[in-house]
Amino acid sequence: MSDVRDKQFWELADSFIQLANTHLNEVKPSKISASALFAASRFNAFIITASASSKEQLIAEKEAAIAYFLEQYESMLRENLDEHVARYDQHTGQ
Asked: N or C: which end of the chain has fewer CB within 10 A?
C-alpha cells in the first residue's frame, strides 16, 4: 500500500478524531482509544478479507498483512508522538 496522505486522507483522519473528541466528556480517554483501535483493526480485517480472491489466499497472506499494518501503526504513532514532543511546551504552557 502506498502513502495515501492527500487532502482527503487528512480530512478523513480529522473527522475520526473529531468524533472521538465528542465522547471525551462522558467516556474515559483510554476507553475511546481502545475502541478506536478495535474499530481500526476490525475495518482493516474486513479490507484484507475483501481483497483476497479466496480463503486460501487470505490464509496465505494473513501474516504479511498483519506485519504491514503493525509497521504502519508503529510508524504513524512514532511520527505523531514526535510531533507532540516537539510541541509539548505549547500544549502544557511550560
From this structure: C
